[in-house]
Amino acid sequence: GLAAIATDFDGLILDLWGTLHDGVRPLPGAVEALQAYKAGGGKVLILSNAPRRIADVVDRMDKIGIPADGYDAVLSSGEAAWLALDARADRFHKELGQRCHLIGYNGDDSAVSGLGLDLVEDIDAAEFIVCVGLRPGEDVDDYADLLEGAAEQGLPMICANPDIEVLRDGVRELCAGALAAHFEALGGQVHHHGKPHAPIYELAFERLGVAVPERILAVGDSLHTDIAGGKAAGVGTFLIASGIHAEAMGHEPFAALDAAHLNRFCESYGIQPDYACTAFRW
């Protein structure tokens, strides 16, 4: 568990879905590990690829049962997307225009809310796309015509959640990253906000308040986002093996890890974490 290395790090950049909860309830031992690390003086930033703003993420954490005394701050990919759209500080965001077509589902629009954008249903009237996710029960094929038309028009896309999929109570659900990957394959231009991309870690460092990257540990269940992003940011990395990769590596959730098998699996992805544990626990 985390206790074995806790004193080596002053702060955690901690994944949410698949590490602390499964979309429905806290994962076994996760809340206790959070509280134990905080009690020892460590700082915790929850960094989620949720395509919604911080207040919505915290509200969902409260409802699932992740207590506020277990962390210091929260940052989400949806918040990063909102901040970038609000500031328009770089060339990509400056040139987007105001007419936005939102790909998502009812009530999950906080990444574009309050920005004064003109949300248009007709893709032909849009100047850009913000993708926050798929509607329940749908897959990439359901968006194929829309994405093909948008690519032909040369519309840029903001992806507010780079995750390809998550596990909700053990069931796989596609995320915005799956649509963004398909759009890129069609030749579309995508700007990703969230892990593993560098800008989200710059924001994370500011909010965590730990000055030395080597004293920060990035914890999560995805090699592609949590581990790759942490490595690129120059921090320690800690893979939770009972998350998104468990089925692919043939690992029974919360069973003991076979280190040799885990190493071979990570090598096949070309990404090697510094540490690994079967679950986020103390």
Per-chain topology:
Blueprint: E1 11-14, H1 30-39, E2 43-48, H2 54-64, E3 73-76, H3 77-87, H4 91-94, E4 99-103, E5 118-119, E6 128-131, H5 144-153, E7 157-159, E8 165-168, E9 171-174, H6 176-185, E10 190-192, H7 198-208, E11 216-220, H8 223-233, E12 236-240, H9 259-269, E13 275-277
Parallel strand pairs: 1-2, 1-11, 2-3, 4-5, 4-6, 6-7, 7-10, 11-12, 12-13
Antiparallel strand pairs: 8-9
Descriptive account of the structure:
The structure is a single chain. The chain has a six-stranded parallel beta sheet with strand order 3-2-1-11-12-13, sandwiched between helices. A five-stranded parallel beta sheet has the order 5-4-6-7-10, with helices on one face. It has 282 residues and is of the alpha/beta class. Strand 8 and strand 9 form a beta hairpin. Helix content is 32%, strand content 18%. The chain contains nine helices and 13 strands.
Task: Report Rg.
Answer: 19 Å
Low-confidence residue ranges:
none
Q: Helix segment count?
A: 9
Distance between the termini: 5 Å
Shape: globular
Query: Pairing-aware structural class of the strands and helices?
Result: alpha/beta
Largest sheet: 6 strands, parallel
Number of strands: 13
Strand content: 15-25%
Major β-sheet strand ordering: 3-2-1-11-12-13
Q: Calculate the mean pLDDT score and round it.
A: 94
Helical residue percent?
25-40%
- Helix and strand succession? EHEHEHHEEEHEEEHEHEHEHE
